[in-house]
Amino acid sequence: MKKILISLIFVLIAASSAFAVVREGYIAFANMSNEEYSDFMYSAFNDDDSEFWWADYKIDRPEYAPYLAVIPEYHDFTSFSAMLMALDAGKIDRMELEQPAAEYLLRLKGNDEKYIPYLITKGVTYSLSMGFKENNKWFEPFNETIKAMAEDDTLLFLRAKYITASDENIKTVKFEKFPDAETVKIAVTGDQPPIDYIAEDGTPAGFNTAMLAEIARRLKINVELVNINAGARAAALASGRADGVFWFWHENTTSAQGYDTPAGVILTEPYYGTDTLITIGKKLHNK
User: Fold this and answer.
1) How buried is 11 (Cβ within 10 angstroms: 0-12 exposed, 13-18 middle, 19+ buried)?
2) Nearest Cα to 51, choosing from 126, 121, 125, 127?
3) What pLDDT, on the 0 to 100 scale, is given for residue 2?
């Protein structure tokens, strides 16, 4: 009954916005064009294993209907900040964020008066791994250390500290120094606060950085952090600018694997995942 009701609401909303263009931003983690991303998301929306619903206020508040189209016009962004600026400037109508980033944005002071979740979807699992160029000698040590950190609950502890309990004061992380040890260059994008985050002064912080500091401590290596945008991940690996990079990908959708992981890139065991995607828009103050 719930699925039937939601389907009927979806049809009514689609009909009311048939001639509207809903511009939706997303971070270009996957190696897809806007058209390919649209095809992928539309196929996911029609997957029988996926569940979709709206928060109650959207059903009761018809002024939000124009922003809930079945097939939005997708616009890719290479940074979280650029996408948020586009939303504030009216260049897009809404933006997709993985659950931790959306919840973080809504927790920031004053943002509950500016933004709301237009749409909450479940069914596509987004996972986070570390990506390396094939044959990079650091892949196996990092992969084994990540697995060990999962087994001894270190990852669970870091998630609780740096994701669940995060606020606008995302914790910076200090790296131990190991004299005469090798240095590994890791690229960070800052595009999924509080998971992958770069502070205003350029200092990486948050969950990924904390996890990386623990890997470096266990392997007794030094880490050089390289700031890049999401679209430059594969290029950073191919050029040698970075040995490794934090890599979001779609875990349960084999059709996206070719997009998510270009040839020549190998991924570690996933160390974080969420199956919830939250679409945020500017808050309308209509009564």
Assistant:
1) exposed
2) 121
3) 41
Range of the domain at 29: 2-125+276-282
Mean pLDDT of 15-30: 69
DSSP 8-state secondary structure symbol assigned to residue 165:
T
CATH assignment of the domain containing 73: 3.40.190.10
User: Confidence class of residue 220 from pLDDT cuts 50, 70 and 90?
Assistant: very high
Residue 68, pLDDT > 70, answer no
Asked if residue 99 and residue 40 are part of one domain, the reply reads yes
User: For the chain, how big is the Rg over CA atoms in Å?
Assistant: 20
Instruction: State the distance between the two ends of the chain, measured CA to CA, in whole angstroms.
Output: 30
Q: What is the pTM of this model?
A: 0.76
Q: Does the pLDDT value for residue 8 go beyond 50?
A: no
| Same domain, residue pair 69 and 142 | no
Q: What is the pLDDT of residue 167?
A: 65
H-only helix segments in 90-186: 99-107, 139-151, 154-159
- State the total domains in the chain: 2
Where does the pLDDT of residue 193 fall: very low under 50, low under 70, confident under 90, or very high at 90 and above? confident
Q: How many angstroms separate the Cα of 83 from the Cα of each of 6, 35, 129, 195?
A: 29, 18, 23, 17
In a 3-state reduction of DSSP, which class is residue 202? coil
Asked, for residue 287, whether it belongs to a domain, the answer is no
Residues 129, 269 contacting (CB under 8 angstroms): yes
Give tens-digit pLDDT for 85-99.
999 999 999 998 888
112-126: buried (b, 16+ CB within 10 Å) or exposed (e) per residue? eeebbbbbbbebbbb
